[in-house]
Amino acid sequence: MPEQQQWTITATEQPPEWFIQAVKQHTPASSGLYAAQLLWQRGIKDRQQLTAFINYKVYQPASPFEFGQEMHLAIARLQQAYNTKEKIAIWGDFDADGITATSVLWDGLGQFFAQNTQLVYYIPNRLKESHGLNNQGIDNLAKQSCKLIVTCDTGSTNVEEIIYAKHLGIDVIVTDHHTLPAERPPVAAIINPRYFPKEHQLFNLSGVAVAYKLIEALYQSLPNVAKYPLEDLLDLVAVGLIADLVQLSGDCRYLAQMGIQRLQEDFKQPAAARRRPGVGRLLELCQKSGDRPTDISFGLGPRINAVSRIQGDASFCVELLTSRDVKRCNELAEVTELANARRKSLQKDVQAQVAQKLTQLDLSTTSVIVLEDAQWPAGVLGLVAGQIAQETGRPTILLSTEGAGEQGAGGAGEQGSRGAEAQESRGAGEQGSNSSPLPLRPSAPLLARGSARSVNSVDLYQLVKEQAHLLHRFGGHPFAAGLSLLVENIPLFTAAINQQLRQSLGSTTLTPTVQADLTVTVADLGKELFLELKLLEPCGMGNPVPKLLIQNCWFENSWHRNQQDWQGKKVQYIKAEFDIRDDSSRSAFPGLWWGHYKDELPVGRCDCIAELDYNTFKKRYEIRLIAVRSSANSALNAPLSLTPFILDLRNQEHSATQHSGLIIEDCPTNWDDLRMWLRRCLAISRSTSGVENQQQLAIAWSKPNHQPPNQIWLTLVGIAKYLSRTNQLVTRGQLLEKIGISDQTLLVGIKALKYLGFTVQRQDRSLQITWNPNDSAENLADEAVARFLAAVREEQFQQQYFAEVPLSTIVAIASYDSK
Fold first, then answer.
1. What is the C-alpha separation between 313 and 130, in angstroms, rounded?
2. If 386 and its partner were Cys, which of 453, 486, 515, 726 is the partner (CB 3.0–4.6 Å)?
3. pLDDT grade, residue 566 (50/70/90)?
């Protein structure tokens, strides 16, 4: 099982007063202290740095011709193609960086070459080809009479494929940002920022940013040709930069800042007037407005990545991002949204299966987690591996043997590829590349394909590379890798890579770690702090989203949903919502926890680490929970004396009004409901210095006066008809109070309503009910109503039991739970 996370707080160094005052000029509504502290910690320590960091208009971007001779060679070859009207192919990649890079070249080169006649694009199928150039695709382009291939986000190490293309009379311009080959490949030009020193302002460019620099140079070299301004490409650049999780410093930060502004400006336009209606529709579907980097990292990026993960071929995403046909873009956005919904569901399922396999591992003797399964789809393994690596603090490799028997000796899916998939929300993106094809004996039919993710500064690429003799293909960078190997080699590979890491670590132990940047209270949360922290945006590697530690807090009004109906498809995913409170304020603050149920929130006092965000569609500030654990002072083991702890005030009118402790006035329907209150009360008591300060719990419900189940059903139907007729919204709490049933029974009733033709849709925390009578499902409706009536009868029976159960029984249950 995963170990207890180790929490750390970033070492703080008080910035000088002049720096705090300089930051305050950018946040006049607040003290500026938090932002100043973070900026100082992250190396921004003089006025010039600060101004350029915050205000992109002051920053001086590098010329595209900083790439020197290689950029000149690339432009010369493109000018040759322009003059002789050669046909050009863009060779892209299927992750968000590769898709946006392809789109930038499609739109940018499309100003100089006629799209679909002189200019085409090719994106490998993730599930069949993986990353990089391959000979079959090159053959296809040769048949279309292409004379020049321009790669984006790939190609640096595809030396054999480049030689093959040259043999067919096709030149190659490589634009990429991944690991460099040992020697310059035989290309017309190679534009890769890895040739710069690490301190150079262009060093961290992602694939889409490198593609943009090529188009920028072409615009300067062939002025007065392009119809649309170069800046129209910046929104795509921002999407790819932020989705790829590169270090947002230098030109990367500048381009992302410019691009987010363009993205927001375009989204504000009516759909028919947008330059990118497909991007606008995607933002609408994920309830974002394009003004935040998180709108990309949690909205656009995962959706673009999901297409290839689920269906392999992501070529239509280029049309989605570049077409101005609103109707067509809406259709493609819907397909993309469905792919993302399926990705969430699939990822959740695989994660649950991986968690089950983890229970069979002894993590105390495991340095690298290596797990395999024949049913795991390869498309989501990188995402799950990243989650497991963070939870366990160990590099994680997940392998799929799905369809292994069909791969044969050729190893479909690893053609000239680096194999590392980008991770959307956490962990490293595909920042480095190296692909090493290794000899595979012709008789070996079974290959496993997988993804690996690292943590704790373990160089994963080097770790995998040391086992190259056991692999078919591999590629990646220090934080993420992809690989394929013979199924029969998995045990040997697992043992060898674990031994290697243990030897390199020595006495160092691997522990899952979560780091907080600032300690705040609930009273600090809100607009002022948000605007302070916003100075750091856009955030990314090297400048992460600030993590806030909130101590001695607790959660209220928690709820979750774990499924969504999308175009008739039921897809499973989880999101818990809650209010957080502490002693600093009488007001609660809203928040959410992706991938978790409300029951996973601790009862009583706890500590949490969270990120502060603004929800544009809900128009509220909220926290996004990262980690949570019970407070140290609530972990006392001594059981409390429970006889005076629980006060029985059942069926006694007005007696509870004088009680100062916790009061349960609603009759429970099961022991779990009662246990929740008991645990909460115990936690409060134990956090207030012991037995002498026990928090009493009063059970003060009255004997229920139940309506007949049939009458409750008629009331529910009547309310549904009224709400449909008046087009009013209703909360679940309002329905529960009106009808007098539990939340679980209400869900059964809502299902029955649907068979009568009612449609129940969620809008934030409210429900909208509409009615379209339908007689075609009478039998099903009768069965559904019968299930509802049975649920009501069972609930009423349980309430009758708790109205009369002896106090001694409740005390016995509570005493057992408190041990």
1. 10
2. 453
3. low
Under DSSP, the state recorded for 540 is B
What are the tens digits of pLDDT across the range 297-330? 889 999 999 999 999 999 999 999 999 999 999 9
Query: Can you give the pLDDT at residue 475?
Result: 77
Q: Which residues contact 327 (CB under 8 A, 6 or more apart)?
A: none
- State the pLDDT confidence band at 338, using cuts at 50, 70 and 90: very high
Q: What is the pLDDT of residues 142-176, one digit of tens each?
A: 999 999 999 999 999 899 999 999 999 999 999 99
**Phi, psi (deg, nearest 5) at residue 752:** -65, -40
Note the pLDDT tens digit of each residue in 75-94: 999 999 999 999 999 999 99
Strands 518-520 and 548-566 turn out to be: parallel
Task: Note the pLDDT tens digit of each residue in 478-491.
Answer: 788 889 999 999 99
Sign of the alpha-carbon dihedral angle for 257, 595, 669, 751: positive
534: left (phi over 0), alpha (psi -120 to 50) or beta: alpha
Residues 724/770, Cβ–Cβ less than 8 Å: yes
Instruction: Summarize pLDDT for 494-537 with one digit per residue, the tens.
Output: 999 999 998 888 777 777 888 899 889 999 999 999 999 999 99
Q: Are 278 and 294 in contact (CB under 8 A)?
A: no
Unique residue bearing structure tokens 């890579």: 497
Average pLDDT over the chain reads 83
Backbone φ/ψ region at 793: left (φ over 0), alpha (ψ -120 to 50), beta: alpha
229: Cβ contacts below 8 Å, ≥ 6 apart: none
Is residue 353 over pLDDT 90? yes
- Which of 259, 283, 286 has its CA nearest to residue 269? 283
Cα-Cα-Cα-Cα torsion 387, 388, 393, 397, nearest 10 degrees, comes to -110
In degrees rounded to 5, what are phi and psi of residue 187?
Answer: -110, 165
And the tokens for 808?
A: 């001694």
Cα distance between the two ends of the chain? 23
Residue pair 172/162 in contact by the 8 Å Cβ criterion:
yes
Contact at 8 Å (CB) between 516 and 466? no
In this predicted structure, the answer to whether residue 779 has a pLDDT above a threshold of 60 is yes
Lookup result for tokens 């009273």: 523
Q: Picking from 55-69, 302-316, 624-638, which range would have the lowest pLDDT averaged per residue?
A: 624-638
Q: Is the peptide bond before 16 cis (omega within 30 degrees of 0)?
A: no
**Residue 726 contacts by C-beta under 8 Å, 6 or more apart in sequence?**
none
Give the strand pairing for 569-581 and 589-594. Answer: antiparallel
Yes or no: say if 631 and 606 are a contact pair by the CB < 8 Å rule.
Answer: yes
Q: What is the CA radius of gyration of the chain?
A: 30
Rounded Cα gap, residues 535 and 26, in angstroms: 8
Q: Which residues contact 740 (CB under 8 A, 6 or more apart)?
A: 706, 707, 712
Pairing assessment for the beta strands 662-664 and 518-520 based on DSSP bridges: unpaired
Q: Is the pTM of this model over 0.90?
A: no
Contacts of 404 (CB under 8 A, 6+ apart): 374, 445, 446, 447, 448, 487
CA distance 494 to 397: 9
3-state secondary structure 156-209: CCCHHHHHHHHHCCCEEEEECCCCCCCCCCCCCEEECHHHCCCCCCCCCCCHHH
Q: Give the residue from 798, 753, 793, 749 showing the smallest Cα distance to 773.
A: 753
- Beta sheet of 119-122, edge-to-edge order: 119-122, 87-91, 146-152, 171-175, 189-191
Sign (positive or negative) of CA dihedral 768, 771, 774, 777: positive
- Tokens 């000979």 belong to which residue? 135
